[in-house]
């Protein structure tokens, strides 16, 4: 019996992977855009729809980053609207555990879970960024080393709140849901001290699905101990298998069933009538994703210097990255943990292939994960899942909101023919969809 391929649809984010210059590109904040992508994903029998989060507009060289001016709506509000226009599709929101409180967020997620009939998911992210913290009362007080400590306790408190209702003590029946008896909760820990009664009964799937996206050693361990699914960025078969083996072993060491945690890399795709046609389209998309201006901005994030005077088609800077200065970009993590090592690798690659700045940035940042005919893409995606490089994919199209249409029309039927993707929904809650 082959493994089933889990599929999630990522609404194209506020980044250079989205091709804003394409005439088919639509609004990032119009509700109709969210509806189109969600309904397309549900038509393709995807497991869930996934939204990222941005709590502050990024700045580079002291100016708001160009890509952020389109705006970043609140994910939970958008997903509450989508719950009314979808029937089966899971609804995943990225919400920060650093700048929220367990009681409030647990209520919001439990409410979404009820509104959707048990389809809610929470992607837990953390931050120690003082720049983002300026938007909040606590500021950037949280030390970097404490971010996962707080997140782990946050999730534990949320689960305690969700479990505080006694489902066996029947109080009332509302539609298909039976509510239980409210119970008191009490938690006293290093990060939180809360007590009271939770206001929302247990949801149809008991807990919203917990997703985690950190790739550091601490992030992997947090995900292995806490998450139901892990969003990672290991796009090659070899890297995926290594990550899969490492995390599943960590899950086992935490006393959990390895099958209880699903690993889902974020992937992109380009389809064509032939493999050569797809490669040509991919090349065109890469150049749209990395404009001359974008190439300089991305290079600055590694070099940590103002490089606006450099020619995007010219050679890399002779000077090394400035590792001692404050980050030139505020509101997001640096692109690399070791800028000097990255610069050395990029210089070697540029010399080997005779690449200018823009072509180098295209080479190192602008790649699609799966390129080819629909048959080739379906075959490769299935290979990743069946050989334990992942359990499925979070699919990131390059256009808003129609970028998933071709995938659903051509790749999905081929996965269904292989028997690795449902032809119809036979389960209702997201946990059931994922086999959790």
From TrEMBL:
Keyword tags: Flavoprotein, FMN, Monooxygenase, Oxidoreductase
Highest taxon of the lineage: Bacteria
Alphabetical list of Gene3D superfamilies matching this protein: Luciferase-like domain
Positions of FMN binding: 94, 148, 216
Keyword flag Flavoprotein: yes
Pfam families from the UniProt entry: Bac_luciferase
Domain Luciferase-like residue range list: 25-386
InterPro entries documented for this protein: Diverse_substr_monoxygenases (IPR051260), Luciferase-like_dom (IPR011251), Luciferase-like_sf (IPR036661), NTA_MOA (IPR016215)
Entry's Gene Ontology molecular function annotations: monooxygenase activity; oxidoreductase activity, acting on paired donors, with incorporation or reduction of molecular oxygen
Family recorded in the similarity comment: Belongs to the NtaA/SnaA/DszA monooxygenase family.
PANTHER family to which the protein is assigned, alphabetical: ALKANESULFONATE MONOOXYGENASE-RELATED, C2H2 FINGER DOMAIN TRANSCRIPTION FACTOR (EUROFUNG)-RELATED
Name of the protein described by the UniProt record: Nitrilotriacetate monooxygenase component A
Naturally occurring in which organism (per UniProt): Virgisporangium aurantiacum
């Amino acid at each position: 019996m082959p493994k089933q391929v889990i599929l999630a649809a990522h609404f194209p984010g506020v980044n250079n992977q989205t091709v804003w210059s394409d005439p088919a590109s639509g609004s990032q904040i119009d509700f109709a855009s969210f509806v189109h992508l969600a309904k397309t994903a549900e038509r393709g029998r995807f497991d869930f729809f996934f939204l990222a989060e941005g709590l502050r507009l990024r700045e580079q060289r002291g100016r708001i980053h160009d890509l952020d001016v389109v705006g970043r709506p609140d994910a939970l509000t958008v997903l509450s609207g989508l719950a009314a226009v979808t029937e089966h599709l899971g609804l995943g929101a990225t919400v920060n555990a650093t700048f929220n409180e367990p009681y409030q967020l647990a209520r919001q997620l439990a409410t979404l879970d009820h509104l959707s009939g048990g389809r809610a998911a929470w992607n837990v992210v953390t931050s120690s960024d003082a720049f983002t913290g300026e938007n909040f009362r606590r500021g950037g007080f949280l030390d970097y080393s404490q971010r996962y400590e707080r997140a782990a306790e946050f999730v534990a408190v949320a689960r305690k709140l969700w479990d505080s209702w006694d489902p066996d003590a029947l109080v009332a029946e509302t539609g298909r849901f039976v509510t239980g008896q409210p119970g008191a909760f009490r938690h006293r820990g290093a990060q939180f001290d809360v007590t009271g009664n939770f206001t929302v009964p247990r949801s149809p799937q008991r807990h919203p699905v917990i997703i985690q996206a950190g790739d550091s050693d601490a992030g992997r361990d947090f995900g292995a101990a806490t998450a139901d699914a892990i969003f990672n960025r290991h796009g090659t078969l070899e890297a995926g298998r290594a990550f899969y083996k490492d995390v599943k072993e960590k899950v086992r060491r935490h006393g959990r069933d390895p099958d209880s945690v699903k690993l889902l890399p974020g992937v992109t795709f380009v389809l064509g009538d032939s493999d050569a046609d797809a490669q040509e389209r991919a090349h065109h998309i890469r150049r749209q994703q990395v404009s001359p201006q974008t190439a300089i901005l991305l290079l600055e994030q590694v070099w940590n210097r103002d490089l606006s005077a450099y020619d995007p088609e010219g050679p890399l800077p002779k000077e090394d990255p400035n590792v001692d200065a404050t980050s030139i970009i505020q509101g997001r993590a640096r692109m690399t943990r070791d800028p000097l090592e990255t610069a050395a690798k990029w210089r070697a690659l540029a010399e080997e292939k005779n690449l200018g700045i823009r072509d180098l940035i295209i080479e190192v940042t602008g790649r699609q994960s799966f390129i080819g005919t629909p048959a080739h893409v379906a075959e490769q995606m299935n290979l990743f899942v069946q050989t334990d490089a992942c359990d499925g994919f979070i699919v990131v199209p390059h256009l808003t909101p129609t970028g998933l249409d071709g995938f659903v029309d051509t790749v999905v039927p081929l996965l269904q023919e292989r028997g690795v993707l449902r032809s119809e929904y036979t389960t209702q809650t997201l946990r059931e969809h994922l086999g959790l």
